[in-house]
Amino acid sequence: MSNLFDLTDRVAIVTGGGRGIGWEIARTLAQAGAHIAIAELDPMTAEKAAEEIRGMGRRSLAVQTDVSNHDSVEAMVQQVIEHFGQIDILVNNAGIALNVPSETCTVEEWNRILGVNLYGAIWCCAAVGRHMLERGKGAIVNIGSMSGSIVNKPQPQAGYNVSKAGVIMLSKSLAAEWAKRGVRVNSVSPGYIGTDLLNKGLSEFPDWGKTWLEMTPMGRVGSPVDVAHAVWYLASDAAAYATGTDLIVDGGYTAW
Question: Which CATH number do you get for residue 31?
Fold first, then answer.
């Protein structure tokens, strides 16, 4: 029986792939055999990650990208195609979070969070999707959040929740449109994952962290690799019949 998780010589783009969950996704896909394009806003972070991927024996390209900017995304995708000749996997991981009360959230803050989290996924899916549809194959995995299905407490984050709900519905909609044309689109929705950003929040807002852990049946935060393994599955041939799926990885948080 062939290894359905083998990604040898496939080309994957990981947005926000230079740190946190994105880096763990990039590393995991590379370990499975994929060549990796790191699309990052910070070029130094992107290049450092790409160097580490090359050290694993894979090809890697660092591309400075602002996913909230349509032209930047189009240029990134074209550069990846010119460098590798193909794109087999897209992981839309780049994202930001803002904890701002809705009544005081500014237009600029709304535009920023929707621009990165939702429009960033839209622009990347459209640009890469055209290439995949021409080839008649491809797998897209969008990083949503359990916050796209539930309202977190006690922190105020309506903008984040709305943006991630949009990512989940974008994934389902594109899955329905593109299924018969060979392109699968799914989402992975993490719960509280132990990144540097989350750990900073736990230390600065201990009351928030207490609530988060009490509301998670497993009683702990997850690891970035937990998200990466879910992405690996959906990007691989093991998930050949999975499209339009939102795979929640949250330690049971949404079960209550």
Answer: 3.40.50.720
Cross-strand partners of 60: 36
160 is catalytic: yes
Beta bridge partners of 37: 13, 61
DSSP 236: S
pTM: 0.97
In a domain, 46, yes or no: yes
List 160, 192, 233, 253, catalytic entry: 160
- Rounded to whole angstroms, the Cα distance separating 31 from 151 reads 35
- pLDDT at position 127, please? 98
Range of the structural domain that residue 93 is part of: 11-194+224-248
Considering its fold, how many domains does the chain have in total? 1
- What value does the mean pLDDT take over residues 81-106? 97
Which 3 state secondary structure label does DSSP give 189? strand
- How far apart, in whole angstroms, are the C-alpha atoms of residue 190 and residue 1? 31
**Stretch 223-244: mean pLDDT, rounded?**
98
